[in-house]
Automatic annotation (TrEMBL):
GO-annotated cellular components: plasma membrane
Major location category of this protein: membrane
Name of the protein described by the UniProt record: ComEC/Rec2-related protein
Entry keyword set: Cell membrane, Membrane, Transmembrane, Transmembrane helix
Source organism: Treponema saccharophilum DSM 2985
Amino acid sequence: MSFFRSVTNPLFASALLVALLRYSGVVRVSPGSLSSLIEPSSIVSVRGVVESAPKRIRGGSYMIPLRCTSVSSRRAVSSASGAVSIIVPARIIDSRSPGGIFTSARGSPAPLVDAGLSVEASVSAWNPYGGGSFRSESIRDCGGWGRGIPGALRRARAEWRRSFRRLLASWGDAGGLLLALLSGMRDGTSPVLAENFRRAGLSHILALSGMHMSLFGGAASAAGGIFGRRAGRFFSLAAVVGFAWFAGLSPSLLRALFFVAVPFVAGAFRLREPDGLALLSLSFLIHSAAVPEHVAEVSFMLSYSSLLGITLLSGAFRSAVSPVIRVPWISSSLSASAAAFVATAPVSVLVFGYASPVGIVSTPVVAPLVVAFIVLGAVSFAASLAAPFLSPFFGGIMNAMYSAVFGASAFFAELSGLP
C-alpha cells in the first residue's frame, strides 16, 4: 500500500481528526474530578474504591488513585463522585512489601492496597491541581474487595501480585527488573538502571506494552495451535487478557490488548482482518472512546505515535538502509527503531525537553536481551514455585542475565551524552 493510500484510509482519517480535536483543545474531556456537597478544603475524610495499584512519586511518597463514594467534614457527611489522588507516606504501602512491618503506627493492620479495595483515608492539604489530591497519614480497609466472584477475583489478584513481588525480592536487582517487566510494579527497579534506560532512549521497554504481551500470547497460541488455528487464537487472547488483568491496564497495555482482540473478533465473525494502519486507527478510536482520560497520558501518546511511525515510515527507512546493511534482520530493526524515534521525538521534546537519538541503535541491541530476560525469568519463576529450594540457583542465573542488560544500557547511556 502506497503512502498516499495509507493516509487517505477512512479509519486513519477518522483517527487523525479525533487526535486533532483532542490535542488542539477543541474537545476537552474532564477526568471526572471530585464532586460533593462539601467544599474540598473542608474535607477531613474520604471513602472510595482504589482504581489501580499505588504509584511511587517524587519524594518517596505513593499516590493512590481513588474513585470517591463519600466524603465528610467535621460537621457533615456527603455522598461524592469523581476521582481523586491520595498521597500517602511510603511506610503505609511499604509495610506490605517484602520485609515490611505489617502494622501502622497505631498498631492496626496496614491494608494491602491494590485495585478494587474499598478504603477510608483521613485527609488534609487539598490540592486542586492535576485532577485534585489530598494528603493522608492513615488509610484503612472499610469494605474489603466486594462481594461474590468479582470481589474474590480482585482479592486473589492483589494476593498473587504480593506473592509474586515477595519471591522476586529475593533475587535482588534482577527480581526488581523482572517485577517491572511482568507486573508493571517499578518499586523494586534499580534507580541507576532506570536512569540508564532513560538516557539511552530505552524507557519504553520498561513500560508494559505489546512486546511483553506478545510473548505470552505467542506462547499460548503455539500451545493451542495443536487444536487448530481458531483454538490457537483463543488461547492467545485468553493469555493476553489474563496478563492484562494481572498487570493492570496501562494505556500501552490496553492498546496492545486491542491489537489482539480486534483480529480475533474479525476472525470469529469471518470478517476481513484490518491491515496494520487500519488496526492502529481502529484501536485508537475504540481506546479514545472507552477510556478518554488515557488520551492525555504520555504513555498513550508515545505508544500510538511510535507504532504510527513504524507503520508509515519504516518501509522508507528500510529502502535507505538495506543497501548499506545487507543483513535483513539488522536493517529491519534499525529501520523500525528510526521510524519510531522520528514519530515520538516531538512528543518527547514537548514533554521531557529532550529526545535521545541513541535509542535508534540501543533498542535493537537491548530489546532482544530484555526479551531473553523475560523468557528466562518466567521459566525461573515457574521452576522456583515448583521447587522453592531452587530459587537461589535461579536467582543467580537471573542476576547474571541482569548484568548483561545493565551493562548494555550503561554503555548506550554514556554514548547518548545526556545528563
